[in-house]
Amino acid sequence: MDGDNTTTVQPSESVENGICNQLSTLSLNGDEERLITETPAKDPRRITGHVEYVNLPFISVLVRYFNPKPQFCYCDDADGIVCNIILPANAPIHQIVSSPKPSTKAAKKDACLKACKALHDVGALTDYLLPEQDVKYDKLTEELSDSDGRDEESRALYEMLVPAALRKPWQEVGNSTYFCSYYIEFCPNPADRTYRGFGLFMKEPLPEEAGKMKVDLCLARGRMVMTQLIPSGTTRFDKDEIAKAEMFQQMFLKIIFDRHLFKPEYVSLENNDVYELSTSTFYLLLPVIHHEDDKISVDWTLVNRCLSSPIFRHPGIGGGEETSQAKNYLHLDNGQKSVHDIVNSLVYVSCKGTFFFISDILLEKSGYSLYNDSKSHVEPFDIHLSFPDQPLLKAKQLFNLENLLRKKKHSEEWREKEEHFIELRPEICQLKVIGFSKDIGSSLSLLPSILHRLESFLVAIELKEKLVASFPEGAEVTAQHILEALTTERCYEHFSLERLEVLGDAFLKFAVGRHLFLKHDALDEGQLTRKRSNIVSNSNLLKLATRNNLQVYIRDQSFVADQFFAFGRSCSLSCNKETEKAIHPRSYDKKNSANAEVRCNKCHHWLHNKTVADVVEALVGAFIVDSGFKAATAFLNWLGIEVDFTPLQIDNICSSSKAFLPLVDQMYVNALENLLGYKFAHKGLLIQAFVHPSFNNHLGGCYQRLEFLGDAVFDYLITSYLYSVYPNLKPGQLTDLRSVLVNNTSFADVAGRWSFHKFIICDSSVLHETMTKYVNSTGSSTTGKGHIEEKTCPNSYFLLDLSALGDLVESCMGAIFLDTGFDLNHVWKIMLSLLDPIISFSKLQMSPLRELHELCQSYNWEVQFSSPKRDGKFEVEAKVNKGKVSATASATNISRKVARKIAARQLCECLKAQGYKSKTKSLEEVLRESKKMEAQLIDLMRHHVMELLNLVLLPLRRQNQVSIKYALLTAGNHLFLNVVRRRDQATWKFLLNHISVSNLNSGPVCSCRFSFKIVMEIKELPNQIFEFYGEPRMRKKDAAEHAAQGALWYIKQEGYV
């Protein structure tokens, strides 16, 4: 009924009449009630069709839907008998009263009719008069999922975007063409290689960020080459130079990727279809000479020398016989060649099928030289030498192209690597490309990786441009963080989306939960959870992402040498409807899935549905890190996820909490506030936070809605804490730590430490007794590391009671968050105090199922679980049996999940006692070795604005005009300052456009009812105080805006913003 749309749909008149017709047929048969419905044959629960009995009594629906059960009370009225249905505290409707009826049955039927209609109106019952299925989850015993979401059916074939900046060909216009040029600077560390200078030439200029791109490339033995693009103005090419540049690029691309084409005596560089649309990218990479002021010029001498090589001439059109002195020539496998041509050139050794760069002539060595080092020669011994007196050639083997963008291993430290040369006899070498030196080869080994990164970076910039065009806050996120959010772990680079995804996932849950809490004030926790789950689900995020075409920007493949295509090397796989399935089969090799795909001319690639959803969350995280909540909210609104709210919604929720004030005598409010270190402006919120669903009263309501809000707040705050404190932790480790903190076991310990159980309002003595025993048992623990599922308890409701104890912490946090007007900064400070020492991980308890899984994975073991049920309890047996390893553990509990955890822990301890341990570091070890930073709340909007508000309340407090409480709220593109007067409890809302406040030390102050003044101190002028008065207005809002206009005008005129 909710689907992906969170808007409450009012039932039509026909539907309402249908409901009335259904309930009008309600008949009573003893204690059993059956609902007669009119249904079609295909669906036994619809409104129209033939009449039949449904084996789902309406009262049974209420009983199943609510816990505790509804109460039915009857009283005599002047006009008959009245039935009063009292629903439990967690129901969206608290009380239903029937019209006076002549009998008890009639009154009960009328009350049921009204209850059904009312529950349907608020969405608690579907159009089939059935309750929505609750989301069943167990925070205490959450297990690992066996599915990783990467099965074949969860994939789809998408086209990968080629950035527009690389798709602009140069046309033959006139006798010359101007190219935008960029010098590619190489800075090796250590400086153990020489790199030939190269330049990048394009028809149109790159975006500014891309034109200054920096890339660190990882070489063997931890060596690095820092590279950077440096804009170098424009360069003019005439027609002949363009032709030579194109041929030079075709030449070196063939040498790098298709070197087998250089084995014959002749290679053609003619390409008649280079401008075909199948060529996806257009740029030229040419050797250059670097001048002062970062100007470059093409080294045409080198280009011409390479292109003049005999291999590019047609047979029979050679340069004739050489007639110089013999000492300047050597006899090679393909004829007599000049020494000048041989040095710094590319040769081919046919007997080994290998290409080499020739760097020098070793005059002191010849074919008669002794084999002192067999590694210095490559030719076989049985080759007959016609010219054994010739000197040897100093050669370096042509490189095999690698992915230099790969992540560097943490343990890998750089070491100098001496260049490896070998000695070749000239007679086995065939001269291929003159002037093609090893220095050129060193640079060419780097260029494809650099261009691959440039392409990805341009894709990120193109997405940013799309976002900026859609909403202004899109300009506040950096292209680098967008690239990180678009790059998956499969790319195997030193960055990926996963850390940003963790942060974005937490904010998405927080923002959507906050919005739903305010928008649907009649829905209970279960309904809110279902709505939030539908919105933040992977399927919905996938739908929204593809609707906005975000999938084309995703980078999900690592750089693969043989799938690099550029001008001069077109993709040969032409993809269309007929060939698509053959080129991109749905089945793939899971063991080699990272490189199993091929690239077609349309750049198709397979993407998992979950990957697309992860990218959406990572983009949210990117906006959070770069610009805070305001920009992240704007991105979600553009995507199609509504998360905005208004201050009025908060005011209404806070005002409605007055309904709980009659319960003030049932708890010590002042003592609880002192315990929290926070005074509530709305005491009803604090009371509501401790009302258990079992408490039956005519007021209605309990802590569960506040628990829903507090859960979302905790999730984001703790994620923000871990993200900032442990910047080097892997995303999976962050998730593990968060699961350690955000669970009912941890929160139950917190609640016990702060004695929250003493303040709970409930109608269950068993609940009080169980909570007290648990708190006493944890408080008397000497080790502090007892396992909660192994503690004994006299009744079977222990787990439920423990859950309620942990819920108090979340509901309390939700109440504080509401009372502060959604001031996360205030809640952050309370959270740090409340959760200590849990956030310091003094009691770090990982899931035993996770620990057992990792241990078995290290040794390729399979663990088997069996869980038969006997006498209401589950008897779980965990077993590992492979080869010489045999271990078994068993546990019994009323909960299957708890029994599995106990058995898993016992089995882990048994295996460890036999000397087996996980080959990966434990989380405790990782934390001990991790760099720890200061905890920060990741919300840049608040970080900047709070500076502006430092002195807002001070003058008003002196005048005794306002309370200490205030709130800064985000709504649309504005900021609202709420100041509450003690005199009449009216709320002043001061609207201030968002400005930079780095130079300001104070902010606006409201001084009287109908006129406003702003008092401001500026750091550069410490001895001066500025006051800005607005003209008196009939409306307070108009007066505040007039004063703000004058203050902002002055700030801008003086250049402080």
TrEMBL record:
Name all Dicer dsRNA-binding fold domain ranges.
47-139
Q: What CDD domains does UniProt report for this protein, alphabetically?
A: RIBOc
As one GO molecular function, the record gives: metal ion binding
* UniProt-listed InterPro entries: Dicer_dimer_sf (IPR038248), Dicer_dimerisation (IPR005034), dsRBD_dom (IPR014720), RNase_III_dom (IPR000999), RNase_III_sf (IPR036389)
Where does the signal peptide begin and end?
none
Instruction: Outline the extent of the DRBM domain.
Output: 847-913
Q: What is this protein called?
A: Dicer-like protein 4
Organism whose genome encodes this protein: Sesamum angolense
